[in-house]
Amino acid sequence: MSQSRFKTNLPLTHRFLAQGLRAREFPKYHMVGKTSAAMTAAMTGEVESELEADIEKQHFGYYKDDYPWLWKEFKTAGYVTLLAEEMPSAWGKEKGAFRNQPTDHYLRPLLVQAKKTFGNEACVGSTPAHQATLDYTRDFTDKYHDGLMFVLTSIHETSRTQRSAADFAAIDSDISSLLKFWQHKQLLQNSIVVVFSDLVDVATEGGTEDDTVLPFMSIALPPRINDQYPDIMANFKVNQNRSSSPYDLHQTLLEVLDFKPRQKGQYSRESSLFHEIPADRSCQQAGIPKEHCRGKYTVHPEI
């Protein structure tokens, strides 16, 4: 879903992110590949072709348990982890991408069983799958509100361009309600909220301007960051106008566990958004493929 489609289809969510949570949007956030590339890169720091996990072949595909998933780092650090998707796995397998349960709480088996029981993957009984996914996320965060939590919730229904305005309105209302619930419960006082979209289908969304071919990404930081780390807020403001990617998002989330206050932004493809990204970093240096680049792709040496 592109930036423009996100704002059009999810206006309540977008408004609450901007006004209620004062989230920073990154309008030059790029794709790094097709299908699940953005999710994989954000959660591992690599794309599928680079990952060298011990993949176990099966008749229906392969498992991805051994990928260096970000939630493993957070679990090691003492966080309770959750992965919730309302459609077949973002990594492309009807039965799921994992042989073993990947996180402490994992919604997918429930939805697979619901499909067998009710014969429809779009609903769990009379409850739309996206709503069941958000309810599951809400219950998890309510239960563990006093502890450390890593939550990854994916709503694929937002990417279906053939959905009606009423469908999008329901999804928008449910997502914004979850965000408001977190704020009401004061769960965001020490939390970082990242909202990002995956693939932008130019064929169906059309357009050539950046906001129609680049995905949406925003980050809301705890209010106290303004006072404790003014440099972070200054760097965020600068980086909003610098090309970034899921690789940078991955490094940013890793730094939640191990913040390096004096580190400078990198020319390499993983540069934490907590630090100023060099203004002249090219798409090539950032790991953004040429076909997805909306800026300078290469840096030519001076002659």
Automatic annotation (TrEMBL):
Cross-referenced InterPro entries: Alkaline_phosphatase_core_sf (IPR017850), DUF229 (IPR004245)
Pfam families: DUF229
Protein name: Uncharacterized protein LOC118421459
Organism: Branchiostoma floridae
